[in-house]
Design a protein that fits this description.
Number of strands: 27
CATH architecture of the largest domain: Sandwich
Shape: elongated
Structural class: mainly beta
Number of helices: 3
Number of domains: 3
Strand content: over 45%
């Protein structure tokens, strides 16, 4: 019963404003990633006494008997210090343990959290770390959240290798509000690996179709943004057709393309290549091309009409430009968002020889 009271108190205190405290924390949540069953794991929280007077740590309360804490009793003014937490994993599955650091720096405690997942055996990534991002390497440099419906919260993994002789604390910079990230473990030893899990909140995407952004993988907090650390993230939000009646589906428009792979040939001495695709409506109501976007630079499109009557066609002209195409990081593609329930998203692959 006592442990339940402590846990409830901790969650209440975690929601309080801690800006007035004279103790700062580099990172008050540490994710230790995978932990072997019955193998204790340790996390070190870096803190600082922001005041000019000595800080006296009165106590560090933990949320359960399976977690212990080690900490200095007194810290000089302006000095940094470490609070260590050790979790003895007694049960399998995800865990989140909290510590309350009580001191004379504030009436409110500093809340620290260690979390991870206890497993019976460690699982490792068997692929290749192809892309160099500063002192880190990853298996991808382009992440795609494809076929996302409103309300979905898909996740994508980025596997990371620390190629340096120093411990990495990977951090993602320039994350938009619709992306979240967790890194397992929070610290990656030299020549060891970890995984970053990107999560997408589709409710924060405002437009159907393609949304793209650029994020940067830093070696540690305070790292600087650089082109070599760039990872592109794309997401495609689909229109909602789930609530259509059987009659509406039967009378819906239906798109038919002359091809979904357009081969424009070779640039060889040319700066521009051109091609054309016929879009036909073989359904029973008006087909609407609601959005027309390019996944990459170097492409230009022109559509002669966005509303196509049943039995009618439209022409989609596509041009590719050599100077821009040669520098792209992914395959050139064109995206269409339509009101065809069976093909709300249409992707056209563009083939060129550079």
């Amino acid at each position: 019963m006592k442990n339940k009271i402590i846990i409830s108190t901790m969650f209440l205190l975690a929601a309080l404003d801690v800006n007035a405290q004279k103790v700062s924390v580099d990172n008050n949540v540490i994710n230790v990633g995978q932990v072997l069953y019955r193998v204790p794991v340790k996390a070190e929280f870096k803190l600082k006494n922001k005041g000019s007077r000595s800080l006296h740590i009165e106590n560090v309360e933990v949320s359960c008997g399976c977690t212990t804490a080690d900490y200095p009793k007194t810290v000089g003014g302006g000095k940094k210090f470490v609070v260590s937490a050790e979790y003895d994993a007694q049960t399998l599955g995800h865990f989140q343990k909290m510590l309350c650091v009580y001191s004379n720096g504030s009436k409110k405690p500093v809340i620290l959290t260690i979390k991870g997942v206890v497993v019976s055996e460690l699982k490792s990534f068997s692929g290749e770390y192809t892309y160099k991002l500063g002192d880190l390497k990853s298996d991808v440099h382009n992440v795609e959240f494809d076929n996302v419906n409103v309300g979905d919260s898909p996740k994508q993994k980025i596997y990371i290798l620390n190629t340096s002789e120093e411990t990495a604390e990977p951090v993602f910079m320039h994350l938009p509000n619709y992306l979240g990230v967790e890194i397992f473990p929070a610290k990656i030893a030299p020549h060891h690996t970890g995984v970053a899990v990107l999560s997408l909140d589709s409710k924060k995407l405002h437009d159907f179709g393609l949304t793209q952004t650029e994020i940067y993988l830093g070696f540690a907090p305070g790292d600087k943004v650089a082109d070599e650390k760039l990872i592109t993230v794309s997401s495609v939000l689909l229109p909602a057709f789930q609530n259509l009646t059987a009659k509406e589906v039967a009378n819906a428009p239906k798109i038919k393309l002359s091809t979904d792979v357009l081969d424009l040939g070779s640039f060889k001495g040319k700066n521009k290549l051109k091609g054309e695709i016929e879009i036909k409506n073989v359904g029973k109501s008006v087909l609407e091309i609601r959005n027309l976007q390019m996944f990459t630079m170097g492409l230009e499109v022109a559509l002669n009409k966005t509303k196509i009557e049943p039995g009618q066609s439209a022409k989609l002209k596509i041009s590719a430009y050599a100077e821009q195409i040669k520098n792209i990081r992914s395959k050139p593609r064109v995206l269409m968002i339509t009101n065809d329930p069976s093909m709300g998203k249409v992707t056209i692959e563009i083939k060129v020889k550079k």
